[in-house]
Structure formats: structure tokens, C-alpha cells
Design brief:
The chain is α/β, with parallel strands linked by helices. It has one domain: 3-Layer(aba) Sandwich (Rossmann fold). Helix content is about 40%, strand content about 25%. It has helices at about 10-15, 20-30, 45-55, 70-80, 115-125, 150-170, 175-185, 205-220, 235-245, and strands at about 35-40, 60-65, 85-90, 100-105, 130-140, 145, 190-200, 250-260. β1 (about 35-40), α3 (about 45-55) and β2 form a beta-alpha-beta unit. α2 packs across α3 (about 45-55). The longest helix has 18 residues, at about 150-170. Keywords: Transferase.
Amino acid sequence: MNYLMEHPEEAARLAKKTRSEQVARQASWAGIKPGMRVLDVGCGVGKTTAVLKQVVGETGHATGLDLSPSRLQEAAASFAAPGLEFVQHDIRQPYVSPVQFDAVWIRFLLEYFREDQLMVVRNAVHSLKPGGLLVVGDLDNNCLLHYGHSQRMENTIQDVLRCLQENHDFDPYAGRRLFAHMVDLGFEAIDVAVEAHHLFFGELNPVDGENWLSKVEVAVKNSGCRFAEYDGDFEAALTEFKEHLFNPRRFIYTPLIMVRGTKPLG
């Protein structure tokens, strides 16, 4: 698996864009409580795992799981604490733990596995105890919903997302599939919450601006898109997108869909 957003500053981008208060609120909604053992699948630089550890408290335990040794090294250096550990594992294989988990958390991971999402979830819950919680969250219409831009930019955005799907197994519609994955795996007491993850109007927060420009300069540039509307000139497309992104008149939003369910006791 080649990570779509890999570049030298990616660790810093991941840490900046993760909003601790949002993670804590979503974990509370999902039913993650003090004393639980929770598995964070696709933990990256570990910031979310650290927040989940705060939610489960001193008597709880959090494990961050990721494929990348460099990400895990950064996570351990930044967030090492009692009751918090980071483990290298390829989630394309079942994760087998000697101790079962009370909850499994998967957020912003399935979008990178368009063809194998159900397999990834099944592998992630291999060591979830019967009656345990599964919490999955991902974006829908990822980066697709804009107003105030030109038609040629709209055509290019659609073309980029098509290329990302075909060339990089990326799924901009992962969020809408989560409920069905939960049903297909036989989970019970399923609930869904929807909120705006990206909501840009008026002046743009500098962190959001930096995050989105990084996406364009790395993922979009390497998507395989030919930028036909700009005669193949990526820099021309980038210039127009910057004008759109930082124009206080523009409106951009992306829904985040969170789904929780309980593993059957049988």
C-alpha cells in the first residue's frame, strides 16, 4: 500500500489537522468510557490515540495500530505514557491481540481502501470482544462540494477524484458505505451521526488553508489527472484553486459520517 499523502511534512500536517475536542466528543457519543481498552486502527502520528487514552482514563488502555514504522516512531516520541502503546501491523491481515478490546476505533482510514473496506473492518475487529463497540468514521463527497468556483475548476475536481479512485484506490464516498459495512458484519444497536467536518465560509483558518494546500500540492498533483481544462498546466490549476480557497466569498463543506455498533455476543 502506497500512502497517497506521503511527503516530508506529512506528520506535522496530520498532527495539526486532528482536533482533540472533536475526537473526545465523538468518542463520548460512541460510548467509549473510562476503564475501557480501545484499539485505534490507522493511528498515524498517534494524536487521536492519545486523546482516546485521555477518554478511557488512568484505568483504561489505548493501542495505536499503523503500518508505518516512521509514523509509529513519531507517535511514541510525542505521546508515550503508561497505558498507551503503539504497534506496527498491516491491517490487510487480521490483528490478533492476546487481550481483547472493549472498543475499536477506525476514523479516516477506509477512504484509502476503496476495494477492500469490508476486509479491513473485519480484520480490525478480530480481537474485539463480544459486546464490544466498533466506531467507524469517514468523509462523504470528500473535497467535492464547492461553490464560487469556475466550471473548469469543477470539471477538474471531478476528474481528479476519478483519477484518485482509479489509480490510488481512494474512495471519496467512504462515509456513506459505513452503515452497510456494519450491517454486513452482523453488528447490532447501530447508530449514525452526521456533522460538517470541513465548513469553510468567510475568512479561512490558517490551519485549514495549510491542510488543503498540502492536499492539492501532494495528492492532486500525483493523482494522474492530466489537467486538460488548463492545457496540462498543474501550476495554473493550483493558482486558480488558491484564489478560490482564500476567497472569503467561497463556500466549501464535507460531511463526516460516524457509525457505532456492538459486536454480537454469539
